[in-house]
Amino acid sequence: MKAIISVPLPQAAYDIVVAPAGLDHLGAWLAAAEPPLLKSGQKVLVVSNPTVFRHYGQRVLDSLQQAGYRVSHCVLPAGERYKTLRSVQKIYDAALAHRLERGSAMVALGGGVIGDMTGFAAATWLRGIAVVQVPTSLLAMVDAAIGGKTGVNHPQGKNLIGAFHQPRLVVIDPEVLKTLPAREFRAAMAEIIKYGVIWDGELFEGLEAAQRLDQVRYLPPELLQLILQRSCQAKADVVAQDEKEAGLRAILNYGHTIGHAIESLMQYRGINHGEAVAIGMVAAAAIATQLGWWDQAEADRQHQLLVKAALPTQIPAGLASDDIVALLSTDKKVQDGRVRFVLPKGIGQADTTDAVSEPLIRSVLAAMAA
Q: pLDDT by residue (tens digit) across 42-87?
């Protein structure tokens, strides 16, 4: 079943295509658009990591070559700790070696790390060339590949270096999830549950009705389709209303404030992004309950979904509350020295606030200590 979700941005509208075997149609879709999303004969640099490229790289190269594009590739190490300017330099080196021009494009074939770095490289190579996102992890499919946020990490914080650069096209092939490790699938469920909490109550209820959420093989095809379509639609809805995070889009950071701090303190080892976000969502839910934004029953519903997805809900052992609180001050959402939190106001609704006191943060973190 092929589904198309539009992201109707005034200056950079694009489509998200969800379709089985989508990898094999990538080149044809780029060429068949009117006008073509990428002119025939142009150079394309495919950026991936070793594992993904081994599984799917040749299919993507063949698809692009059959459509008449001149294709090269760049393979980078896998993992959040490689999401650095040094890795982006390798993309630049490949772009230079293959003489990419302003009419050329980069294709990000991989998870969120590859997508973010490729998008940032495309945004800055020759002051901006086209990028196509082909996410291969569930997390990238429902989050990182959509919305144009690109970037890399600084040693002192996550995603502190970056740019907004919208893709020309996003192609999601659900079949690639068959090779996704179970832990990566579970990590993505945190972001999907997030969409249910902040935006889409029907998606949340659909997840509640599922028997299991911890492995893709336990999801009926219709539920996987629901998850992909409604999660992508939620992200598209928010991005269309607030492309550059001037207001509404900030709600997409639900769970990320404390989550990013945990990732940074652990140096992106031993925990992945979705796991950190799940912990951050539990903290945000507790803060919202303390402030009276929603009630304990709703917080419990969120907690039950996180547990069903086999996600962590406690602060990892060895992390000190003092260190987490100190790192919050470097978060991108800090304004006038005050940390801004995204908090739920009910299932399907959220808002931002800077009225969360440090004692309340410390109290919640203490209660969540492993």
A: 999 999 999 999 999 999 999 999 999 999 999 999 888 889 999 9
Say whether both 289 and 314 belong to one domain.
yes
138 and 259 both lie in a single domain: no
From residue 241, alpha-carbon distances to 247, 313, 331 in Å are: 9, 31, 23
- The answer on whether 191 is annotated among ligand-binding residues is yes
Domain count of the chain? 2
Give the Cα separation of 362 and 367 in Å (integer). Answer: 9
Interval 213-242: pLDDT, tens: 999 999 988 889 889 999 999 999 998 988
Q: Is 149 annotated as a binding residue?
A: yes
The answer to whether the annotation marks 115 as part of a ligand binding site is yes
Beta bridge partners of 7: 14
Q: Is 136 annotated as a binding residue?
A: yes
Terminal-residue alpha carbon distance, the chain: 43
Q: What are phi and psi of 212, to 5 degrees?
A: -140, 150
Which residue from 327, 326, 316 is spatially nearest to 269, judged by alpha carbons? 316
Q: Which domain holds residue 314?
A: 182-367
- Whether omega for the bond prior to residue 359 falls within 30 degrees of 0, making it cis, is no
Spacing of C-alpha 154 from chain mean position: 18
Residues marked active site are found at: 127, 149, 191, 235, 245, 249, 253, 256, 260, 273
Structure pTM?
0.85
The reply to whether 300 and 344 lie within a common domain is yes
For every residue of 64-129, DSSP letters joined together read: HHHTT-EEEEEE---SGGG-SHHHHHHHHHHHHHTT--TT-EEEEEESHHHHHHHHHHHHHGGG--
- Residues 6+ away with beta carbon under 8 Å from 54: none
Torsion of CA 250, 256, 261, 263, to 10 degrees: -140
Which H or E run contains 322?
helix 321-328
Calculate the dihedral angle through the C-alpha atoms of 102, 15, 352, 152, rounding to the nearest 10 degrees.
Answer: -40
Give the chain's length.
Answer: 370
Query: From CA 267, how far away is CA 246, in angstroms rounded?
Result: 29
Is the domain of 163 the same as that of 299?
Answer: no
